[in-house]
């Protein structure tokens, strides 16, 4: 299987404080992988290195076999590669004053002629593509609303529709459900899983809640203090293993609201099992 992502000994420090330390990771094309860890573990920092938003201090990073970073430098060709990478932000990253339709179509801009980008002009075919994407995420009826009028869950679904229109081969989601209620969180995670299955895109999603990793991602990578401390099947994340990896922080990896939802949404691992022995 071809690799969608290959990271070798990536290091990053801010003001002398280590954010990532010797991170090495491979993700095969078509995988859906969860990236978990407590706040400050390095999840967001790692995700932002993948499209070259941040330059590492050292190490190598390739996406679909093409260089993104090497020895502290972002490759000049990374802008072309970003066309294949969809990024879903925690705070949605939509332009509130623009329509949902326009926000979704922004995903096409890297492939548009410069004059169409300047005029923000999209073809009928482009708009049809956006409507299909909005229908796929269940919010086609909001296409002509201002993005600022949408709920948080709807805005996140619009961001996913943008990835569909963009035809992203790699989708990076940075804590996409952190600001959402439990019901919206489940819908967004289900849509990510559906995109992975239906479109064959690779998905790397950072999560603060272990239960969503267990439900939707066959593989989990766990970070602690910028270091990979686990990389393997999500099903192997037992209470004992989580205590070994995170100590008292293990309990923080479960969202209180999610624990109060219906039984089918709650994994076998329960919060009281995570209390230090």
Write up what this structure looks like.
The N and C termini lie far apart (about 40 Å). α5 (about 125-135) crosses α6 (about 150-165) and α6 runs parallel beside α7 (about 180-200). The protein has ten helices and eleven strands. The strands form two sheets. A six-stranded mixed sheet has the order 7-8-9-3-10-11, sandwiched between helices. A five-stranded antiparallel sheet has the order 2-1-4-5-6, with helices on one face. The protein is about 30% helix and about 25% strand.
Task: Tell me the layout of helices and strands.
Blueprint: E1 3-14, E2 17-28, E3 32-36, H1 43-49, E4 58-63, E5 66-70, E6 73-74, H2 78-81, E7 85-88, H3 100-105, H4 114-119, H5 124-136, H6 152-166, E8 170-174, H7 182-199, E9 202-207, H8 210-216, E10 219-224, E11 227-233, H9 239-246, H10 256-259
Parallel strand pairs: 3-9, 3-10, 7-8, 8-9
Antiparallel strand pairs: 1-2, 1-4, 4-5, 5-6, 10-11
Helix pairs in contact: 5-6, 6-7
